[in-house]
Amino acid sequence: MDKIIINFLSPMLLFIFIALTYSCGNDNSAKDLYTKTLSDTDSAALLFMLEEEKLARDTYAYLDNLWSLNQFSNIKLSEQSHMNAVENLLKVNNIPYTILPSGEFADEGLQAYYNQFAIDGAIDEVNALLVGATIEDLDIVDLQEYIDATSNTALIAVFESLQCGSRNHLRSFISAIENLGGSYTPQFLTQQAYDAILNSSKEQCN
After folding, report:
1. Domain ranges, residue 146
2. How many structural domains comprise the chain?
3. Would 205 be classed as within a structural domain?
4. pLDDT tens-digit series, residues 55-80
5. Secondary structure letter of residue 77 according to DSSP
6. What is the dihedral of CA 165, 166, 167, 169, to 10 degrees?
């Protein structure tokens, strides 16, 4: 009879132990089990932003070869660091990804952007800088949409850092455009959001 009682109680004791472990003083461990696994939506966001940052890097490298402007030579390096930040998150979360050769993109929309940017940016220096402003304009908006759609703190932190960099890049491109007598009208940002960025100082990004 005693053996029967012991055999019956053992599974119950194990269950109680596990329950107490995750409910008392070990909340962070339980949360970590969930935060380490990205949702399909978050995974897709990372994969897309890896290519969108690549769009910026590849376009600026191409335009730098054409015009040798400081904006392109400096910002293309920053875009590589943006790619590295996204790539690190993909690696940590064991999400498969592929980085195609320069100027090639898996996403058809990004490929179309690159093809058009290469044409427009070859016209003259002002048009090349307008391409840069357009890319940063797009990047800021896309990042915000992904930030608003997730609760993953690691993804939010990385995307907010990239967004900070893009605001600085936008300011740099607009300054160069205006110095050459040109102007830019926001295509993705609202006018209010665009004005707020241009009227604020350069930011220190993490």
Report:
1. 37-198
2. 2
3. no
4. 999 999 999 999 999 999 999 999 99
5. H
6. 90
